[in-house]
Design a protein that fits this description.
about 650 residues, alpha/beta, seven-stranded mixed β-sheet, five-stranded mixed β-barrel, 16 strands, about 15% strand
């Protein structure tokens, strides 16, 4: 059966028998492990040891048996390995976690059982629904169709430039300036649709990690002299409570800061920087198509903004960096972005004086979606109201909706009055929020970068940080390269892809997972509220429970496994909160549903970003199917 979102294929009887045998053994061993708690709890016999001998022996035996189980000859090895790693991990969690996380043996065993069941349920259901499914939610793989003859012909062409950059936003301008500085011999052509100062409502928050990248790229001066405001952390407001969280200290004991700025002023400074290099030629025009010869890209055609003529430029390498709405993304990588929600933006007068937490990003958990406010200059504050798909009123009615529905939810009269003044001024604009994981393209002669390659929900304000990180890695990878040696370029791009993957995955998973948790309207699961409360309780614990997540938000910590550890620590908090003061049947069910919701959010994101691929195979989990359910997804497909 084929749908617009996913495909399924049958599983053979032999594989079914193999799977049943494997699951039966798992079930027996799992029950045996669980019964061990009630006879000889590990924290009573060895309270200071993380590895009780019995649990260690049983898990090692389990791992050995799975990897030598005879079914690997008839069952697809990738799935066999994935299931074994998942099961061994979960049984190890049950055996090894310290008792201080809970107050009783019953609560401990029940909570960890609830944590184990949802991942196993999802993995088993994934095995039954598809053996080799590749999610079509975002992309259709584009193969390298180039030929040796095509590469030879293009290599021998006389080129106008060494490099063409499509788009002169943050990423395109930074890339041109850095390459021109590192290698003055490069001839670079930058094509931008509109070279006037842009005016956007997003892309105005630069996290500390992005500011550090500017310094590494020798572009730190571009964030100066534009009346940017210092951002020190976040203030979070939820159900009448509020919490102030600063960016964590670095190795020297200092606290790094971000910047809130006008997007147009920042881009103008980056463009001025690249124009100072004589080898950079900047053209105002709209790129119509990329030129190809036997699968090899060698330039572009564009419509000149001054003469309205269609012109052609050729180059050894073309970089597409014209944003998430790029018309070339699908052609190059087969990927298409999805719009999950819409931001409605306003600019408030008064600067930091109108914010509950000055020099902070203020996040208000409202209905239908979160509202973000942060300073962009000494006089201005940007406010963004998120509307999940299906909840946004028509723009002619927007002012009334903002006055009647959004303004009363602000916790402070000062910001509420400034918000109402901005609504009355009438400068209300909207922009779609897109999500798209990166898909590696191996088409010779062309490269995607920035939001044209990957984008995430802008709730965390990490778009410029991600883009500048890509610029840093790609300029290092391409330094000194022969752009016409396509095989060498592909090897260098392999290094770039490896270096960027973990940091980009962390940024993307964090942004999309937080949005799903903090926006119940975007995740139609009634138990997502438990996760939301658990996140806030986790933050209130302080210490590493704050420094870790805020370091991830600020782009200072780029390890996806640290992100996963914090995410599932929140899941423990969910079980703990639901089972207080005493476990009840309802609390068991609520805990299971909350953990199921958490797994349904994060597992597809990890699969899309290719994290823990042996454990969570790419294309194995469909995020819409896991969040909404297959029936609801099929109904949505039919209606569309």
């Amino acid at each position: 059966k084929n749908t617009s979102h996913h495909t399924t294929s049958s599983i053979s009887p032999a594989e079914t028998l193999s799977l049943i045998s494997t699951i039966s053994f798992c079930s027996f061993h799992f029950l045996h492990t669980l019964s061990h708690f009630f006879v000889n709890p590990p924290w009573q016999t060895s309270p200071n040891l993380l590895f009780p001998p019995l649990g260690l022996r049983s898990s090692i035996w389990n791992l050995f048996l799975f990897h030598h189980f005879p079914t690997h000859t008839i069952f697809e090895f990738q799935h066999q390995r994935s299931f074994s790693f998942l099961y061994c991990t979960m049984t190890s969690v049950i055996n090894y976690l310290p008792a201080k996380l809970t107050n009783s043996t019953l609560l401990y065993a029940t909570g960890l059982t609830l944590l184990t069941l949802p991942p196993v349920t999802y993995l088993v259901s994934g095995l039954y629904t598809s053996r080799k499914r590749h999610s079509k939610l975002f992309s259709k793989h584009i193969a390298d169709e180039s030929t040796s003859e095509g590469k030879h012909v293009v290599r021998n062409m006389q080129k106008d430039y060494d490099l063409i950059i499509v788009g002169a936003g943050v990423i395109g301008s930074a890339l041109a300036g850095v390459i021109a500085e590192k290698d003055p011999s490069r001839r670079i052509c930058v094509i931008e649709r509109d070279l006037s100062q842009p005016d956007r409502i997003i892309g105005e928050l630069l996290q500390p990690g992005g500011l550090a990248m500017l310094d590494k790229l020798n572009l730190q001066h571009c964030s100066e002299g534009i009346d940017a405001s210092v951002v020190k952390g976040y203030g979070v407001f939820l159900k009448g409570e509020q919490l102030n969280m600063h960016y964590p200290e670095n190795e020297t004991g200092d606290r790094p800061t971000g910047r809130g700025m006008h997007y147009g002023r920042f881009v103008t400074k980056l463009r001025e920087n690249m124009k100072q290099y004589p080898q950079v030629h900047v053209v105002q025009g709209s790129v119509k198509k990329l030129l190809e010869k036997d699968g090899v890209t060698y330039g572009a055609t564009y419509k000149d903004a001054d003469t309205q003529e269609i012109k052609t430029v050729t180059a050894s390498l073309t970089v597409v960096a014209n944003g998430a709405g790029s018309g070339f993304t699908k052609a190059v990588s087969g990927t298409k972005p999805l719009s999950r929600s819409t931001f409605v933006g306003l600019r408030l007068n008064g600067g930091n004086a109108v914010l509950p937490y000055p020099n902070h990003g203020n996040v208000f958990m409202m209905h239908p979606g979160p509202v973000i406010a942060y300073p962009t200059s000494s006089q201005d504050v940007r406010v963004l109201i998120d509307f999940p798909n299906g909840t946004m009123p028509p723009m002619p009615q927007m002012a009334t909706y903002l006055r009647d529905k959004i303004a009363p939810q602000f916790p402070d009269d000062i910001i509420r009055n400034a918000f109402l003044d901005a609504v009355n001024e009438g400068d209300i604009r909207s922009v779609p929020n897109r999500e798209m994981p990166a898909e590696r393209s191996r088409k010779p002669g062309v490269l995607l970068l920035g939001d044209a390659l990957t984008t995430r929900h802008p709730l965390t304000g990490s778009g410029m940080t991600a883009g500048l990180t890509d610029v840093y890695h790609i300029t290092n990878a391409l330094q000194g390269a022969d752009y016409e040696d396509y095989e060498s370029i592909q090897r260098r791009l392999d290094v770039w892809w490896k270096n960027r993957n973990s940091s980009m995955a962390t940024i993307n998973i964090l942004a999309n997972a937080l949005y799903a948790v903090f926006t119940p309207a975007a995740t139609p699961d009634p138990y997502v509220g438990l996760l939301q409360d658990a996140v806030f309780s986790y933050f209130k614990t302080g210490g590493v429970c704050v420094s870790g997540p805020v370091g991830l938000l600020g782009g200072l910590i780029k390890n996806p496994y640290i992100l996963a550890s914090h995410y599932f620590a929140v899941a423990f908090f969910t079980v703990r909160e639901a089972c207080r003061p005493l476990p009840t049947p309802w609390s068991f069910y609520a805990s299971y549903r909350a953990i199921k919701c958490a797994v349904g959010i994060v597992f597809p994101l990890m699969a899309e970003e290719r994290i823990l691929r042996p454990l969570i195979p790419t294309g194995f989990f469909n995020r819409d199917e896991m969040r909404y359910g297959t029936k609801a997804l099929n109904k949505l497909s039919r209606s569309s």
